[in-house]
C-alpha cells in the first residue's frame, strides 16, 4: 500500500480536508498572490501561464485568475478517477486539465517559450518525482518566471514510510530520498521537527542549485534562482513551501528592486522559514485588534501601541496576528 | 614481440606502443580504420549525402587483415607530417587532438592488429607505399616510418583511381585468435552495421568478409496526431539535433542512439550514460518493459571533430564534457515528454480493460504499423512538423476508472483449482476466477 493510502485509508487528500477551510494555507496563497503581483513591474503579468495541481478546489487558480488576471492556466491531475470531478469543479473556463504525473506532463508544457508561475503544491512527502520536477522546471523555465513547491514536512509521517527491517525513520528517509541526494551530515542522526525541515530545505536547494549549474554550463547568459519564500505551517500535517524567481544573473538586483518584494514581511531568501500560524481569535477580538492596526513591532516585550499591551489575549497570539492580519481568513457558515 | 627484440628495443618506444594498444579493443581498432576509410571517402565525395559510388572492403582471418577504400587517398604531406610521424613536436599535437582523421588512431590500430604492415596509397597527385616491420622498428633509434623509395611520387597527377589500402600480416596473438572466431566476425559485422548506419543509408557499401552491410533503417512514428519531440542548437562549431518518440515495441532496439558526425557512438542505450539512471539519479527510471517503444536520437556534428564530446576510442560519450552534460539535460526532458504517453499506454491496459476500449493503445499500434517516418527525413526537415513538445492524441486516453471495477483475490486448494480449470477448459487462474464468478452471476443473480 502506498504511504498516502496507509495514512488515509484510501481517501484522496482533497477528500480528507476541505482546502478552503485551511486557514494557514489560505494565508499562504494570499501572501504568494501579493508577491506575484510584483511581476507587473518587470513584465506583462496577464500573459503569464499558471501551472498548478488544482485538485477539485482550484483555490489557487481562482485567486490568481481574479487577483492577478492570469488566464492561461493548466492544472495537472494524476488521479484518473478524479478527472471528471475536477473537470466539473473548474471554477473558470480558462483552466486546462492535463492528466498524468507532473514528472511527465511538465516536460510537455511550453514553459520554455512562455513566462510562467508554477506552484507544485504536492500534498505528499518528498519523492523522486519532486526532484525530477525541479530539474524539469529549472531546465526549461524562462527567466522572470516563478517556481514554488510545497511538500509534507511532518516528522511523524516518516513512520509510514518505514519498511521491514528499518527501525529508524531516518534510514527510511534516506532510502526514499536516495543516498546520493541525502545530505551526509544527517546520516544516522535523530531527526527533530526542526532538523527535518532543515534537511528537506537542504535537499531541495541542492537540487535547485545543481539544476542551475547544469543550465548555466552552456549558456552565455547565466541565470540564478532567487529564493523569495520559505513558508512553514501546519493545518493538519506540517507543510513547507519553497519558492523563488528565475532571473538572469545580471538582472537580479534590478528586478528585485523594481518588484519591491524584499520589503514584504514574509520575504525569505535563506534557510530560516517564515512560520504561518493563524491564532484562533473570536470575531470580536479580530475587530478590536484591527482597529488598533497597523502598529510597529514590539520593543522590549511591549507593543508601541499601549492599548495592545492591555488587550486580553496572550502577547504571542497578538504577535502572530500582527504578522499576517492582512491575510487572515474569515469564515462564515453559509446556506447554499 | 619476442623477448630478444624487447631487450634491445627503445624503452620509450616499447612503452609508448604498449600503452597505446592497452586502451583499445581489437574490435575498436578495426572500427578506427573503417572510420578513417569513411573520412577519406567523404573527403572525395562531391555530394556528402550520396556515397553510392564508394566502398570499404575489409577481410580478415587468422592469417591476416586487409582493408581498402576508394576514397581520397592519403596525401604524401599528411603521411609525412602526421599519419606516419612520431616526431616530438607532432606527438604533442597528437595527444591534444587524438581523434583526428589520421591521428593516433591509425597507428594504434596497426600495432593492435599485427606486426607486419603494408600501406598503399594513391591520392590525386601523389602516391606512396610504406612497409612497417614492427619488431624491427622497435629496435631502431628513429621513430619515423620510411616511404618505400621507389614508390613515392609527389606533385605528379595520378592516373590510377585514388584510394587507400592496408594489409597486415604476422598478426598479434589476440588478433589471430579473434579473427579465426566466426562469432567475432559476426559481431563485427553487426556492430559496424550499426555504427555506420547513416553512411550505409547514404549509399556507402561496407563489405566485411564478403558480406555487404545493410543499413538499419531507423524511424519514428510521425503522423497528424503523433509527433516526435525535437530540439536543436546549431552553431558554427557544433550542431546538436535531438529527436525522441516511439516506434515498435522492442526490448532490444529501444533506447537512445547518439551519433557524432554520422558515426553511431551509443546504440540502443539503456544505461545511465544517457538518461536511465533510476529515480534516485539525475535521469529517469531504469529501463523496463513500459519503455520498449521508446527511441531517442542525438545527432552531433562538428567540422573540427575535437569539438565532439566523445571519448578518444569513440566508444562512448565524455560524461564530463559541458556540451554532453547540456545535451543530456535535454535528453532527459525529452524522455520524460515521451514517458507521458508510455505511462498512459500502460495505465490504459490495466484492470483488464478490454482491448476494444483501449483507444489510445489502438491508435498507437495502428500508427506504429502504418506511420513510421525515417529519422533522417525528420532530421533533414523538422519544421513545421516538429516542436519541442511530444504530441499524441490525449483525448483518446481511456483507462478504466476505479469506481467501475474491483479486483477479487483469494486462495483455494490446488486440487480443486486444477479440477475446475480442466472442466472450464481455460489456461489461467484469472480465467478460472472469471468463469466461476460469471457462473454464479448467471445462476443466482436476477439482474446480472
Please give a structural write-up.
The complex is a heterodimer of chains A (336) and B (448). Chain A is α/β, with parallel strands linked by helices and 336 residues long. Chain A folds into two domains: 3-276, Rossmann fold (3-Layer(aba) Sandwich), CATH 3.40.50; 283-327, no CATH class. Chain A is built from 13 helices and eight strands. Chain A has an eight-stranded mixed beta sheet with strand order 3-2-1-4-5-7-6-8, with helices on both faces. In chain A, helix 3 (23-37) packs parallel to helix 4 (59-68). The longest helix of chain A is centred in the middle third of the chain and has 25 residues, at 193-217. Chain A is globular and about 60 Å long. Chain B has helices spanning 3-8, 11-22, 26-44, 76-83, 88-96, 104-113, 134-139, 173-179, 182-195, 197-201, 322-349, 359-370, 375-380, 414-424, 429-444; strands spanning 55-60, 64-69, 114-122, 126-133, 153-154, 163-171, 205-208, 211-212, 219-221, 229-234, 239-246, 255-260, 263-269, 294-301, 372-374. With 448 residues, chain B is α+β, with helices and mostly antiparallel strands. The longest helix of chain B is centred in the C-terminal third of the chain and has 28 residues, at 322-349. Chain B has three domains: 3-212, 2-Layer Sandwich (Heat Shock Protein 90); 219-401, Ribosomal Protein S5, domain 2; 414-444, no CATH class. The relative contact order of chain B is 0.10. Chain B is built from 15 helices and 15 strands. In chain B, the strands form three sheets. An eight-stranded mixed beta sheet of chain B has the order 5-4-3-6-2-1-7-8. The radius of gyration of chain B is 29 Å and the shape is elongated. Helix content of chain B is 38%, strand content 19%. At the A-B interface, helix 6, helix 7 and helix 9 of A face helix 11 of B.
Which helices and strands, and how do they pair?
The complex is a heterodimer of chains A (336) and B (448).
Chain A: H1 3-8, H2 13-16, H3 23-37, E1 49-52, H4 59-68, E2 72-77, H5 83-89, E3 95-99, H6 102-105, E4 116-121, H7 128-140, E5 145-152, H8 169-177, H9 193-217, E6 223-234, E7 238-248, H10 252-259, E8 274-276, H11 283-290, H12 306-310, H13 315-324
Parallel strand pairs in A: 1-2, 1-4, 2-3, 4-5, 6-8
Antiparallel strand pairs in A: 5-7, 6-7
Helix pairs in contact in A: 3-4, 7-9
Chain B: H1 3-8, H2 11-22, H3 26-44, E1 55-60, E2 64-69, H4 76-83, H5 88-96, H6 104-113, E3 114-122, E4 126-133, H7 134-139, E5 153-154, E6 163-171, H8 173-179, H9 182-195, H10 197-201, E7 205-208, E8 211-212, E9 219-221, E10 229-234, E11 239-246, E12 255-260, E13 263-269, E14 294-301, H11 322-349, H12 359-370, E15 372-374, H13 375-380, H14 414-424, H15 429-444
Helix pairs in contact in B: 3-6, 14-15
